[in-house]
Amino acid sequence: MRGLLPFLASRLFRAAVALWLVSTVVFIVMRLSGDPVPLLLPPDAPRSEIFRVRAELGLDRPLPVQYVVFLGHVLRGDFGHSIHFRQPAFRVVLGYLPATFELGLTAFALALLVAVPIGVVSAVRRNTPIDHAAMGLALVGQSAPTFFIGILLILIVSLNLGLLPTSGRESWRHLVLPALTLGAFAMASIARLTRSAVLEVLRADYIRTARAKGVSEALVVTKHTLKNAAVPIVTITGLQFGTLLGGAVVTETVFAWPGIGRLAIQSIYNRDYPIVQCTVFLSAVLFIVINFCVDLVYGLLDPRVRAS
Amino acid sequence: MAEMTRRDVLKVAAAGAVAALPGLPHKAQAQTTQKRELVVAQGGDIAFFDPHMSTSSNDIRISFNLYDNLTSRRPDGKLAPGLATEWKLQGQTTWAFKLRSGVKWHNGDTFSSADVKFSIDRSLDTGLKGNRVNTVLTTVDRVETPDPGTVLVHTKKPDPLLPARLGFYGGQVIPRKYVEAVGPDTFNQKPIGTGPVRFVSWTKDDKIVLEANPDYWGGRVDFDRLVVRALPEMAPRVAALLKGEVDLITQVPPDQGERIKANASTAVSGALYGGLYVLAVNSKRPPLDNPLVKQALSLAVDRGAIVKELWRGRGIVPNSMIAKGDNHFDASLPPLAFNPGEAKDRLKKAGYKGEEIILETTAGYLAGDKPMAEAVQAMWRDIGVNAKVEVFEYSVRAQRIRDKSFKGLWWSDPTSTLRDPDGMMWRLLGPGGSQDYWRHPEFDELGNAARFSVDEKFRADAYQKMTRIFLEHFPWIPVIQPYEDYGLQKYVEWTPDPLQQLEIRRFNFKFRRA
Fold first, then answer.
1. CB nearest B135 (choices: A49, A150, A258)
2. Does B23 score more than 50 pLDDT?
3. What's the rounded Cα separation, in Å, for the pair A80 and A61?
4. What is the radius of gyration, based on Cα positions, of chain B?
5. Treating both helix axes as pointing N-terminal to C-terminal, what angle do A273-301 and A89-124 enclose, rounded to 10 degrees?
């Protein structure tokens, strides 16, 4: 346990640096992309009006001043006032988080529940029709873009079969298609990785030993193989989890799901700096926290990681 | 930027898959309904209920139904009584409005002239944080309220269009007592008006719920609840209509319209846009400073083909800078001509030597802008013009508008907010307007005189003369006046509005019932 405190401290320091870099990049990129004021006003607004609104939003100050003000506020959890909603940006983004969590967690659960068993079965039944079908599907899930899968699901499942609603956020039935769409990529990646990790372990000496001892095949797979194959699976699962929570932009747009991905995309169109900064910052925090947790889970799974 | 990305290709593929799928549900073929709830889907959520904070079409579809104006612009383009029952000009600069009696706000307070004065003053208040309409009523000098039922609006100069101005954005009437009591933020969260529907709830980026105002002075609307959903992508918006989840959708592009029409239970209804799609011209840049070159460019555009091929017939060819349906539109003028031979002659006469002419376009800010730009480029090349299309970002376009720095031509969709040339052509092309790149002494004199004249005969004559000058100099090259299409269930009886309002009052909306 002696190594734990320095380990935590260095991880936290790196996380802080990453967050500072992320917020700086966002600040610069948003300002490079153009002035939000002409987009807020009617096209024939007089120049005096443009100057008035610029001053109202604090955009008339020099960039370095805007940057220092911005960093100071971020430290206090204050991302400024949304240009578009004219409310504190943090409060606006928080309002969109529950929808994103609901969708992200469901997609994640779905991905895990489907992908891990499929991966294991494919590995155990390697080169059988089951394996080929599962890996073929995984290839499609990994290569087809999200909006394509989303629109196709709407057409087939909602419109032609009439099974589920097309879009919106009301009951659990509204959640199924967006969660499937969002989870498709993660599901495919996890399934493929699970398969290869399990295959690797199945070739190991201790598995041969277990079999030679007469341990039943079911026990070999569940007890001896899965635990040893878990490290790479946890890694990719952790990464996918971050993506699912932070990257649902397309899915949320296609299914009119009121989450932060859609908020972010609209705020980029509106040049709503404070909202974009806040969503990217929060996504980065999520990602960093999840990676941190994944590191800790390694320790639990693999004694060698703990020892080093 | 100009190439098709992988994403574009796939989008086209997805659209193709959409079109190819057979067998839409047959159950939803009802041409009548028992529904008490109207569900509308538009392309984005609203940003504000406070009508002074926004002019966006998503917002005004709601705010024109929560609130009333003194005058009301009907879908047929005519001005009808709203909160004012009658109005007349006293002298040259005073408009007197007689207010409707017995009107109540949604919270039960009584509506009076004090609310009207408060609303006009607030719309003009540059100190109001977030005010986006303070340029609409700038001809107003001051407002007087001699009694609760009368409003006198004094204008700085004669203003023939004041009643029209009060009928559009900036003119919605809001409750003085309530707004002063709760402040602008609460007013925007929990709005109160006199309109046919009242506020129930707003879930951001999801839906707005409104309910019928049972005591509405114009008659109770034909439903109990109005739900407005935000469905940003076109394909899911159409799918929601075809499946019967929504009753009415906005912004239907021509290719999707055919799909909606092919379905047994849905239909397309369009209004001729109250405005034009034009190629605005930076007439200061050679060779575009030469009227002969601009005449040649106009003559080379085969507008009929653009309407037919790119818009599938959903538009008409303009005949001048005045939109069909506006005051002083001259129906006797022929549509703008297509004559490539004559165009070549004029280029020769102009001494054109192959100078590059740049057409700047976004991909999607205006419906069909990029494909139209590419078609126009090909037509211009056919007569020997060295035309080039440059694609730019929305924000760059906004910047160019502000700096007046367009390189040549660009797409603009001037809206005729007052259904009169003054509110469209003169607002933008006049001196100091946002598209002021060309000046002509006689044109300017006529435009100014027409703006401040209350004599409609004089104005008609002025706009006729201005049209002649316009058709020689082409500060805009008008291309198409498109239809704005909506998709609806066949049990919906409703007429769309040329200015993108969603008019659901009793006179314009009805469910067809068994």
1. A49
2. no
3. 15
4. 24
5. 40
Q: Which two tokens stand for residue A94?
A: 């928080």
CB B261 within 8 A of CB B268: yes
Q: How far is A59 from chain B (nearest CA, A)?
A: 15
Q: Give the domains, in start order, of chain B with CATH numbers.
A: 6-14+274-483 (3.10.105.10), 67-178 (3.90.76.10)
| pLDDT tens digit sequence for A34-80 | 677 776 666 666 777 778 878 877 788 888 888 888 888 888 888 87
d(CA B308, CA B321) in angstroms, rounded, equals 21
**Interface residue of A51, A154, A157, A271 to substitute, partner B, most B CBs within 10 Å:** A154
Beta strands at B225-230 and B356-361: parallel, antiparallel or unpaired: unpaired
Q: Any residues with CB less than 8 A from the CB of A52 and at least 6 apart, and which? A: B126
Q: How far apart are CA B168 and CA B25, in angstroms?
A: 40
pLDDT digits (tens, 9 = 90+) for B437-478: 999 999 999 999 999 998 999 999 999 999 999 999 999 999
Contacts of A151 in chain B (CB under 8 A): 14, 17-18, 233, 235-236
ipTM above 0.85, yes or no: no
Cα distance between residue A219 and residue A20, in whole Å: 48
Number of Cβ within a 10 Å radius of residue A254: 28
How far apart are the C-alpha atoms of B45 and B205, rounded to whole Å?
A: 5
Give CA A209 to chain center in angstroms.
Answer: 40
If DSSP codes are grouped into helix, strand and coil, which group holds residue B418?
coil
pLDDT digits (tens, 9 = 90+) for A95-115: 898 999 999 999 999 999 999
Contacts of A44 in chain B (CB under 8 A): 135, 427-428, 433-434
Residue B31 backbone zone (phi > 0: left; psi -120 to 50: alpha; other: beta)? alpha
- Considering only A24-33, B67-76, B334-343, which range has the smallest mean pLDDT? A24-33
More confident residue, B479 or A257: B479
Burial A179-208 (b: 16+ CB within 10 A, else e): bbbbbbbbbbbbbbbbbebbbebbeeeebe
Q: How far apart are CA B13 and CA B176, in angstroms?
A: 54
Cross-strand pairs, B395: none
User: Do A183 and A248 contact (CB within 8 A), yes or no?
Assistant: no
- What's the pLDDT at B3? 42
The three-point CA angle A182-A188-A193 to 5° equals: 135
Is there a contact between B25 and B243 (Cβ–Cβ < 8 Å)? Answer: yes
**Statement: residue B20 has pLDDT above 50:** no
- Give me the residue from A86, A96, A145 closest to B10, CB to CB: A145
A258 → closest Cβ in B206, B240, B428: B206
Q: How many CB atoms sit inside 10 A of residue B499's CB?
A: 24
Q: What span, in angstroms and rounded, lies between the C-alpha atoms of A232 and A238? A: 10
Taking CA atoms, B375 is separated from A104, B24, B277, B300, B370, in Å, by: 44, 34, 15, 11, 9
Distances (CA, A) of B270 to A229, B262, B267, B507: 61, 16, 10, 18
**At residue A269, what is the residue type?**
Y
